[in-house]
Amino acid sequence: MVTGENNIISYSSENVNLHNTEKFHLSIEISPLNIWYSFLNTENLEYIFFKSIYTSEISELISHISSEDKLKLNYYSSSISYKNFPSTIIPNKLFDKEKKHKYLDFVIEGVESVKTDVIHQIDSSIVYSINHNLVNSIHQILPNIKEKNSTNIAISQLLRQYSHLKKKTSYLFINTNNIEIIVIENGKLIFQNFFKVSNSLDILYFTLFCFDQLNIDPNKNEVFLFGEVEKGDENYSLLYDYIRNIKFGEISSSLLFNEELNNISNHKYFTLFSQLLCV
Known about the structure:
This protein has helices at residues 58-67, 100-105, 132-141, 150-161, 200-213, 234-242, 270-278, and strands spanning 2-5, 8-12, 24-30, 34-41, 46-54, 77-82, 87-91, 113-119, 124-130, 146-149, 169-174, 178-185, 188-196, 223-227, 246-248, 256-257.
């Protein structure tokens, strides 16, 4: 069953029993203006519910979170990933947790709640800043939820899932206001960064700029697309004009989806659905 109105879309199995959520894992992903969440039935390891909410300002997002009754039920387990918030990655040999605020001073003015994750696969830590009120709203509803940064999940899962690729491979995560570019070569992260964008030309510019700096051949090296992009849309068409070996990324084949959720684009919510494999 699919429902949607006023920037809210949900996909649900016909037999979802909200009186039996103790058997579900709740996955949430939050960006500054969006929330997405899903239920996984832990008995058959199948996703059975998905909902996305798009807002215009963070106060509206916080209001939605506080009023979303499904987030207040009892779950077997729960996790959340924070997406598109200011962040920086520091090698662990240089990382000092006491200086986490100072690291972010180079990235953003007005640092708020600061969180850190260890990215074990690359022996590094990611430091990121989240709006105070947003964090408080989440913790009031789900005080014991496991927290991660979505970049941590993206890097960790890409390194597992595409480990068979030895040449420089680029992964573009296209979002409403930014693009995250991750480049991996022979099982090692060699580049990750965010760029603010306002149109398809910006996406193309920053992609080709990174390719030039990293000696990536747009006619030979593979490029995988994730996020807000579909075949035939303006973002895809412009990238395809300049990059020949381009394709959509996929989530792990170990993840199962109820029939109703198969209508969701496979590449669009990679870090949300990969959470369970990385927390």
